[in-house]
Amino acid sequence: MQSLNLGVAAHCLPQPIRMAIRAAVEIEAKALQFDVRNELRPDDLSDSGRRQLLHELEVSGLKISALQFPTRRSLYDLDQLDARVAALKRAMDFAYQLHVPVVTARVGAIPADAESAESKRLVEVLNDLARHGNQIGSTLAITPTRDSAADLKSLFGRITDGLIGLNFDAAVFAMNGRDAVAAFRELHEHVLHVVARDGVRDIDGSGQETTLGRGDVDWPELIVLLSEADYRRWITVDRTHSDDPLQETRQALTYLRRVAFGE
């Protein structure tokens, strides 16, 4: 099996960024993912600051796996939509400046009716962002919410002006009662980034995040599929809710290496 490109979400590590870099090296991660709203804002770094950050990462043997842009509303909600799209474009510009090929963001649940105004607006916005990505060299990868693989595939088929990819968060599928492995089989050609999380579907129909390897995601099978699909991009360990995110992140990296290589 080919080697895994394993990164970690910086919010799981001690802050500020320099401490996160040291922690990532200690747990033998190869990359960091940064949140560009709360951790690494474009306006907070001058040109020299960006160069210094890239230098510190290079000296530490680290790369940036992706930039994450948390959206507060969907990309078809008209309230402040223009500002939201402009902010996403700035995040993509920032990614290009940091030599990061992917920006991840939630776009909202895909509207059920493909002919609805909301659905058409979503497609229009994504095509606009795809064109922007063509111009600057970084790409938006959307993170699903409760969407099915079929709905996601249909959406990708309507993006005709450039590339929009998938940020494949297996836990999202599991927490919505969907088979993450089956979803990857259907969507692998669109995957630009993988999030290593796990989750379960509760008896009341809600989802709950769990420690990696203890949820409903069949990670051993998914790792095999990643290899069969010749996936060579980043897999970023993330833990949204944890009392000890650093320890869980360390354990998740160990788990993935054990599953893949028997380490």
Features:
single chain; 263 residues; alpha/beta; eight-stranded parallel barrel; two-stranded antiparallel sheet; globular
Low-confidence stretches: none
For the secondary structure, the number of strands is 10
Q: Give average pLDDT, whole number.
A: 95
Q: What is the rounded Rg?
A: 18 Å
| Proportion of beta-strand residues | 15-25%
Task: Give the end-to-end Cα distance, rounded to a whole number of Å.
Answer: 13 Å
Q: What composes the largest sheet? A: 8 strands, parallel, barrel
Strand order of the largest sheet: 1-2-3-4-5-6-7-10
Structural notes for this entry:
The protein is α/β, with parallel strands linked by helices. It is built from 9 helices and 10 strands. The protein has helices at residues 17-26, 47-59, 81-97, 117-136, 149-157, 170-175, 180-187, 219-228, 245-261, and strands at 5-9, 31-35, 63-68, 102-106, 139-143, 165-169, 191-196, 198-201, 207-210, 234-237. It has an 8-stranded parallel barrel with strand order 1-2-3-4-5-6-7-10, surrounded by 5 helices. It has a two-stranded antiparallel ribbon with strand order 8-9. Strand 8 (198-201) and strand 9 (207-210) form a beta hairpin. Helix 5 (149-157) runs parallel beside helix 7 and helix 7 runs parallel beside helix 8 (219-228). The protein is globular, with a radius of gyration of 18 Å. The two termini are 13 Å apart.
